[in-house]
Amino acid sequence: MFKRKLGKSGLDVSALGMGCWAIGGPWHDALTGEPYGWGKVDDRESIAAINYAIDYGINFIDTSDNYGAGHSEEVIGQALQGRRDRMIIATKFGNVTNEQTKEALGQNASAEYIRLACEASLRRLNTDYIDLYQFHIGDYPEHLAQEVKGVLEELVQEGKIRYFGWSTDLPSRAEIFAQSPYCTAIQHELNLFRNNTDMLNLCEKYQLSSINRGPLAMGLLTGKYSGEVTVVDPKDIRRRNDLDWLKYFKDGVPSPVMTHQLQAIRDILTSKGRTLTQGALAWLWAKSDTTLPIPGFRTVQQVTENAEAMRFGPLTPAEMAQISQLMTDTASS
Questions:
Q1: Which pTM does this prediction carry?
Q2: I need a labelling partner for 283 at 20 to 30 A (CA). Which of 33, 88, 194, 322 fits?
Q3: What is the largest CA-CA distance in the chain?
Q4: What percent of the chain clears pLDDT 90, i.e. is strictly above it?
Q5: DSSP state at residue 316
Q6: Residue 43, Cβ density class (10 Å: 0-12 exposed, 13-18 middle, ≥19 buried)
Q7: In this protein, which residues make up the domain named NADP-dependent oxidoreductase (predicted)?
Q8: Which amino acids are annotated catalytic?
């Protein structure tokens, strides 16, 4: 099994984790009705996929309390009955939802709310502790972040959580948490189209895991969506066109620029028998010894393909150099 350390915690984790946004199912903005999920899900398939991953040797799973307005955590709690000790659980807090109406209601990072959110996640996950608790408001004001860090350090002392981190793409925010001995990971966007070198450098400096959100560019790097092949589920967030950070798809159509770049590097990614998905994960492992990609899934088949990427391991330095040059050339063409 291809393994890595979960930052300075010393915990051994599989080099691949499981991202659980999609298995939360639909939820939506309370004001606009716009979707935040990835469409309908089959909980039985989700549970089967999680158990397949455990049997394969994957032992890191990442979710959030707002995915499906808590439903993702509930599914994980069901899947891990009797197997909790075989999985390192990461979840997040800061985005407020209504479990009954499946509505997104805003954000809250007050000390009182953090404690309430932690207890709610423990209940849904059916566990006594959370291995990695991550702040989910990426652009939270720096001058207020020390208070959040202080509450998390108290939760560690109380045994509610073991370690904490921040899900953010801003190195200045990440560095605030990195000062704590209990901060062991930063979750940030990283993939072939989003090369966040500054954050990788910070993770290496502070011995933190770089947990890679969006490692497959919301599915674009799987090769499933290309040209006029679109996302058809109206409740899939990739159908939206009003979110600035939604770069890979607009109105369900994949970015033509990124699709063109993917075609240019396809042969390298799929060398040695890899699929496109497996090549995209291999690129991440080659970027840094700190990287821990968490591709999403909805089926056993997707988890199988993701897991098999570990048999191949990282791309070689020569392959990485070729890809870098081709990406540069196609971006300017």
A1: 0.96
A2: 88
A3: 56
A4: 89
A5: P
A6: middle
A7: 16-326
A8: 67
